[in-house]
């Protein structure tokens, strides 16, 4: 995104907003409302008294923002991963306001594998004794250990085993500390995942992660809870970018999503992203799709 790039800011007005329950609630640059926000009735953080919200609620907040800006039609809606879910929901809930749909590394419904994976990602937080059923905001010991382990699992599964093999082999984190001789010694791949998770946890909130997990588990495109009808409601020409090695949203689920969107004649274009990163190829390898993105955005809508 930028001048002259596929999302050309010399041509397009790009709106990108934070969501409800944004994970990085501790980042001063983030604007969000969720469990870490203050309840105006009490002056205290909501904690788990904050209502559960879903992808549809995220989109309705964005729609209210568009109304406030006076924007009635969108040249395209686009997002990756959870952003793809929001893009599907936009095009389904407000078909007369969306001219094009671009969904990257995401499917139109949370399948049982994703639901179970998300539960595994959330488990370390719930097992952290400092989580206290979500009531930890008045304590100087938040559930940071559980949060780090959750983010470590997410980072691992968002990648692919080829990335790990190509990057780390069986190297030790400390060349002088053998995991064969010392239970406290780590392999480099583990230490790297720990470092990434610790950096992410420093800005994140544990309850917000749990709420995002539930929002994603509950996701089905459309308001009726039926993916077939929700995806059939999409009228916008659609571009789906996906990785055949995605461990989060398997390629088969993206292809099934395409089938449901196409059921009533809506045109769908599929394009695969190559690489060793699995799900994250939708982020780090997105430039592979530059020509497809540019052409799709510039093509006239019939």
How many structural domains does the protein architecture include? 1
Could you name the CATH class? Alpha Beta
The helix content is 40-55%
Q: Secondary-structure element sequence?
A: HEHEHHHHHHEHEHH
How would you summarize the topology of this molecule?
Layout: H1 55-69, E1 77-80, H2 82-93, E2 101-104, H3 112-127, H4 144-158, H5 161-168, H6 188-201, H7 206-217, H8 227-232, E3 238-242, H9 251-262, E4 268-272, H10 281-284, H11 290-298
Parallel strand pairs: 1-2, 2-3, 3-4
Helix pairs in contact: 1-2, 3-4, 3-7, 4-6
Describe this entry's structure for a reader:
The protein has one domain: Rossmann fold (3-Layer(aba) Sandwich), CATH 3.40.50.1820. A 4-stranded parallel sheet has the order 1-2-3-4, sandwiched between helices. It is built from 11 helices and 4 strands, in the order αβαβααααααβαβαα. 40% of the residues are buried. α9 links the parallel β3 and β4. α3 runs antiparallel to α7 and α4 crosses α6. The model has no long low-confidence stretch (mean pLDDT 96). By secondary structure, the chain is mainly alpha-helical. The protein is 41% helix and 6% strand.
Short description:
The chain contains eleven helices and four strands; from the N terminus they run αβαβααααααβαβαα. With 302 residues, it is mainly alpha-helical. It has a single domain (1-302), classed as Rossmann fold (3-Layer(aba) Sandwich).
């Amino acid at each position: 995104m930028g001048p002259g790039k596929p999302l050309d800011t010399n041509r397009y007005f790009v709106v990108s907003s934070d969501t409800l329950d944004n994970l990085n609630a501790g980042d001063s640059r983030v604007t969000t409302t969720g469990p870490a926000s203050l309840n105006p009735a009490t002056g205290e953080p909501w904690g788990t008294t904050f209502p559960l919200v879903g992808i549809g609620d995220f989109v309705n907040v964005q729609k209210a923002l568009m109304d406030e800006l006076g924007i009635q039609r969108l040249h395209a809606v686009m997002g990756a991963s959870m952003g793809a879910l929001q893009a599907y929901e936009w095009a389904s809930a407000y078909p007369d306001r969306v001219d094009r749909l671009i969904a990257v590394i995401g499917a139109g419904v949370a399948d049982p594998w994703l639901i179970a994976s998300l539960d595994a990602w959330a488990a370390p937080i719930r097992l952290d004794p400092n989580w206290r059923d979500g009531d930890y905001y008045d304590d100087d010991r938040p559930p940071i250990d559980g949060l780090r382990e959750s983010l470590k699992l997410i980072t691992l599964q968002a990648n692919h085993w080829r990335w790990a093999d190509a990057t780390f082999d069986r190297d030790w984190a400390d060349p002088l500390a053998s995991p064969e001789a010392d239970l406290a010694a780590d392999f480099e791949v583990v230490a790297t995942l720990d470092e990434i998770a610790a950096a992410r946890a420093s800005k994140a909130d544990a309850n917000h992660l749990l709420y995002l997990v539930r929002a994603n588990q509950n996701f089905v495109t459309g308001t009726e809870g039926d993916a077939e009808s929700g995806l059939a409601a999409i009228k916008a020409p659609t571009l789906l970018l996906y990785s055949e090695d995605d461990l989060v949203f398997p390629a088969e689920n993206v292809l099934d999503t395409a089938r449901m969107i196409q059921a009533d004649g809506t045109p769908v274009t599929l394009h695969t992203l190559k690489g060793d990163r699995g799900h994250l190829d939708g982020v780090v390898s997105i430039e592979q799709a530059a020509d497809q993105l540019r052409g799709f955005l510039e093509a006239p809508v019939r």
